[in-house]
Every structure is written in C-alpha cells, then in structure tokens.
Amino acid sequence: MTGRLEWGLPDLPTGQIIAGNYLRHLRDSRGLRVADVRGLAGLSHSSMSRTESGARPLSKDEAEALLAGPYKVPEPARRGFARFLYEAAFAVKYPEVLPADRAVDDTTGWPDRLAALEHRATEARVYAQRLVPGFLRTPGYTAKIADTPDPTDLQITRPATIGTRTTVVLEESVLMRLLGAPLMFAEQVQYLIDAATEQHITVRVLPLDSPVHGEFPEHLAEFVLPNGTRVYAAESDQATYYSGLTAERRMGGFLARVTEAALPEDESLERLRLARDMVLGGDRLRLP
To answer: Which one-letter DSSP state was computed for residue 108?
Structure first.
C-alpha cells in the first residue's frame, strides 16, 4: 500500500482531516463557493482551502463563524463540533494520553462528520464483522434498528452509497444473524444485492473458516480522499479515526489481507441470495 510520504504529502493530524472534510461537506451541500464564505470567518481564500484540506487547524471562533453564519448549523451540533476540535487538538498536544494519529468523535452530530468523509472519498474499503455499515443500511433498517436516538433531536442523515469504487468485505457471520424481522433482514440483503448488481459497490464475503481474522472493530473503513490522504474509521456508538503511516501499515494491511482472502464477487452474491431466500423461507441461516 502506497504511503503518503511517497506522494510528498504530510502526515496530518486526524482531527484536522475530519474537520476540514466536514466544512467542505457543509459548503458543498449548500451550493457555496470558497469566495462566498471566506471573509465571514476572517479567512483568506488560501487559508480556507488549506483548512478544508486538513492542512491547517481550525479555531473555535472560525468554526463558530462559519457554522452559525452561512452554513446555518443548529446550536447543539455547533457545540458538539467545538468539543470535537478541542479533543482533536488535545490528542496532538498530549500524545501520551491519546495517540496523535487517533481522534475519537462521540459528540453531537458525529454521524454527519463521518458522512462527510464518506461523501468525499474517491475510494473506500469497508470490513464489517457483525452489522452492515451505516452507508449501506436501508432507510427502514436505519430508522427501526441501527441508530440510537440523538438526545438533542438533531436530524442525522447518512448517504446511501459513496463513490463508485467501494469494496465491502462482509464477514460471513453478518449473513447468519437475523437482525429485526425476517422481511427487514431480507430487504437489507436485497439492498446489498441491488447495489452490487448496479455496480455501486463490490461485495465480498469472508468465510467463517478463513484464517484471516483479527481483533478489529466491528466496522473498519478505509477512505481515500481526493488528495491521497487515507483515513481509517471504526464505527460503533461513536467514530474513531486513524491516520498516518502506522495506521496505513496496520489497518490498511489488514484490510488488504481480508479482501484477498474473501470469496470472489459472483460467489459472494450467491451467498447473499441464499441468505435472503433461506430467511424468507423460514429456515435457519446456516450457509455452506
């Protein structure tokens, strides 16, 4: 796996990458240009661009000016983002407490910041041991099972798919746990089949008897951003991000191994269809 140093790119603190992509996501989603918002936060065009790329840290005052002004983000989410900025800066300043290549985001609106990374990714690879990753959930699945209600009642949205070069490696146990009612489970599996058939994603199933398993989070994603930066995100009831060459070697290497060990795409789709048909037929999910 190619490291950023080989492209001449710096090892940026993870928090800056997340914050920058979140700001870019907010600006793009509102149809605004850098020129439309730069002066409102006291930022030059160059500073704004470097902030969005993650090359420049964002101050609390600058974030408040942008989020409360042209981006019109509700106060609870602004408060959560301010806390995220503080924690990201703390991780860089005190690496013995939290490694500089890791940032934990459990504040209000964290799924939106994760979604900003997903939207921006030019390539992505996801490894799921138990639950289907957020951006592959059907609306019904998300509404009834997956998301914990936000105490601030902030409306959180997730993209349906990201880009056109997304590889999803599902550990076979994903297909053997009936989550919710049978019809909902079948709908979720069909959603994956349709996404793969329409070539939005590539689905690969990692057999349970494969020796390539490890002690990793249930959801581990690798996002390749437009500037070549790679960010790894683990998702449960929060988002934990990793970046830097150490993360590329450890987590990127793991994802490469599980992808290589997974079944071919056509055989993986047959496993999905079998799981769908078995649950609709009332059979227990025991795949070959």
So the answer is: T
Sort residue 168 into left (φ over 0), alpha (ψ -120 to 50) or beta.
beta
Place of tokens 């494969």: 210
* Other beta carbons less than 10 A from residue 221's beta carbon: 29
Q: pLDDT tens, 133-151?
A: 666 677 666 666 555 555 4
Q: Cα separations (Å) of 59 from 22, 62, 264? A: 14, 5, 47
More confident residue, 181 or 100: 181
Q: What letter represents residue 237's amino acid?
A: D
Query: What is the Rg, in whole angstroms, of the alpha carbon atoms belonging to the chain?
Result: 20
**Per-residue pLDDT at 237:** 75
Angle at 67 between CA 63 and CA 68, to 5 degrees: 115
Structure-derived torsion over alpha carbons of residues 79, 80, 84, 90, reported in degrees to the nearest 10: 60
Q: Where are the beta strands (DSSP E) in the chain?
A: 102-105, 123-128, 166-171, 201-206, 219-224, 230-235, 239-243
Residue type, 215: E
pLDDT at 36 over 70: yes
Cα(205)–Cα(150) distance, rounded to whole angstroms?
32
The structure tokens listed for 43 are 């930022």
